[in-house]
Write a structure and sequence with these properties.
- By secondary structure, the protein is an alpha/beta fold.
- It has 2 domains: 2-107 and 286-293, Nucleotidyltransferase, domain 5, CATH 3.30.420.40; 121-281, ATPase, nucleotide binding domain (Nucleotidyltransferase, domain 5).
- Helix content is 35%, strand content 20%.
- The strands form 3 sheets. The protein has a 5-stranded mixed β-sheet with strand order 3-2-1-4-7, with helices on both faces. It has a 5-stranded mixed β-sheet with strand order 10-9-8-11-12. Strands 5-6 form a two-stranded antiparallel ribbon.
- β11, α8 (261-268) and β12 (277-280) form a beta-alpha-beta unit.
- α6 crosses α7.
- The radius of gyration is 20 Å and the shape is globular.
- The N and C termini lie close together (5 Å).
Length: 299
């Protein structure tokens, strides 16, 4: 049995999968805000609950918005800020009496979709998160590639390629640099674009709904967003040439985003034809927790 934990800033979710990936049990509880010992307790209790309910022991994988630093072995860049600078994997391992594997949630998303999701038949999969942030993960032959510095897939912190005149001056990204793909393709980027055209502050979800209702400004914003996404994916494809790109996150649910996207990518990528599939995630917001479970082989 594989146990996966999605450790977020507001909720902690657990899932148990059998050998074939069938869900055996799933539960979600609030995250103890700002409480590191409390978070450890909740996660350990969830694992114990699953194993008691199902009568068997499982491997444990954790998905978090952060990652383990290659230099310190401590959690970094997590929006569950109480985890940052902590040896969460070793602390939890002591509590539950077994090794723990932790990966960035975008990596877990990509792994889930590559193993039994929208890219299950692909050799090379790149998973994309389009939401509050812009993340990604790389999976080759169903093996997650984290990279030497544990930053494989961080395409959101490369500059937006083939800039157009109205995209200057650069927007500043939270990482401290300017012009990052994330600053254009995140939900905040779509909001900023709409506000710049109308003076009205709407969320990305509200802009998507407005576009569906025929709001010309929202329609134009989605069109521009799609073009920026195509340029960014084309640059990615030029480097990795994956079989499938899987889109996840809230913005991936904008249905019109997929209109003309392959032809736009082909316009920018360095090839006469581009046969890379660009698809929506099969498991939706369940992919993170499922991918955490897939970090280990079954027992």
């Amino acid at each position: 049995m594989r146990i996966g934990i999605d450790l977020g800033g507001t909720k902690i979710e657990v899932i148990a999968l059998d050998h074939g990936g069938t869900t055996l049990l799933r539960r979600r509880v609030p995250t103890p805000a700002g409480d590191y010992p409390g978070t450890l307790n909740v996660v350990a209790e969830l694992i114990a609950f699953v194993e008691t309910e199902l009568g068997q022991r499982g491997t444990v994988g954790i998905a978090t918005p952060g990652a383990i630093s290659a230099s310190t072995g401590l959690i970094k860049n997590s929006n569950s800020t109480t985890l940052n600078g902590r040896p969460f994997d070793s602390d939890l391992a002591k509590r539950v009496g077994r090794p723990i594997r932790i990966e960035n949630d975008a990596n877990c998303f990509a792994l889930s979709e590559a193993v039994d999701g929208a890219a299950k038949n692909a050799d090379v999969t790149f998973g994309v998160i389009l939401g509050t942030g812009v993340g990604g993960g790389l999976v080759i032959h169903k093996q997650l590639i984290a990279g030497r510095n544990h930053i494989a897939g961080e395409w959101g912190h490369n500059p937006l390629p083939w800039l157009e005149s109205d995209e200057l001056p650069y927007a500043t990204c939270y990482c401290g640099r300017s012009g990052c793909i994330e600053s254009f393709l995140s939900g905040a980027g779509l909001t900023r674009d709409y506000q710049g055209r109308t003076g009205i502050n709407l969320s990305a979800q509200e802009i998507a709904l407005a576009a569906e209702s025929g709001d010309p400004f929202a329609v134009e914003c989605v069109k521009v967003y799609r073009n920026r996404l195509a340029r960014s994916l084309a640059a990615l494809i030029n480097v990795l040439d994956p079989d499938v790109v899987v889109l996840g996150g809230g913005l991936s649910n904008i249905a019109t985003l997929y209109d003309e996207l392959p032809s736009l990518v082909e316009r920018y990528a360095f090839s006469d034809i581009i046969s890379t599939q660009i698809v929506r995630a099969k498991h939706g917001d369940s992919s993170g927790v499922r991918g955490a479970a897939w970090l280990w082989p079954a027992v």
